[in-house]
Amino acid sequence: MQRMLRTAAATAVLVVLVGSAGGQGPAAPDLFPTKVGAKWTYKINDQDVTVTVSGTEKVGDKDGFKFDTAVGGQVKQTEVYYVAADGVYRAKVGDKKVEPAVRILALPAKKDAAWDIDSKVGSEGLKGKFKVTDEKAKVKVAGADVEAVLVEAVDFDVAATKIAIKQWFAPGKGVVKVEYTIQGTTTTMELKDYAEAKK
Q: Residue span of the signal peptide, if any (predicted)?
């Protein structure tokens, strides 16, 4: 029962915070691929979580990309991201707009780049600070060593809950690992497989 609760909680946080990676935009085709049809499979606790770029959606004057997060073959959440000159932004979670959109990755990705977050998803607040702590962090992906950009938030507030977050973005794959700590419990999400969109 506890394992089920941990998995449910982890999935909920994943849906709100992590989304995943997807297509082409200014300066970001490697760290955040967004081609429709791309699919990521992650391991979180004892479950597989898949993220698929399912389509596009206009976000104001921005070209957004829709990402479906699924557990057990069922879509649990759809999010919309867009790529701007200064970074990758999460603009929508389900049918709720993120106001203002949350930048999850600064572009270009340079060590020590930092930015504040003060947004809302519906009535839930998101507040904190992200920082690029390493441009060439070593991380294992499906048993292989890769270099990734590491983005961290030490004291992030999600709906009045304090969360520490680490996200690794690898060239050609996007988000390859996420680690977050809630109330002293750390959960890790790791990439198992990435399938590029068919041309």
A: 1-23
